[in-house]
Amino acid sequence: MTGSMTTTLITFGLIILIFYFLIIRPQKKKDKEAKAMIDSMKKGDRVVTIGGIHGTVVTVKETTVVIKVDDNARIEFTKGAVSTVVQKTTAKPAKKEDKVIAEDKTAEKVNTKVEDAVVTEEAKTEETK
Fold it and tell me: How crowded is residue 79: how many other Cβ atoms within 10 Å of its Cβ?
């Protein structure tokens, strides 16, 4: 009698552990990531709502967000209705000086290759004479 009670308790304990590690823990992690995504939402971010509406964030309020979906259309959603935040890329424009330096280096490489080709061609011509 005691042996069967012990195996039953161990079995239930294992089932609870399996549920925790396979269902409860991953869901908590997913919820935490979603909350962080919504909290990091800011003006100018591209978003997709749970209804599939794509737009750009215009205003972020305490519990709601205003999304611009067209030139003259703005819709206010609760923050929980945003399913995905696609952050804008904020690439810094390259300085003009950097572009000029890069172009000069490229030109130098091309000139060097052309000069090497000319020298090689002259050497071949002299060998054939």
Answer: 16
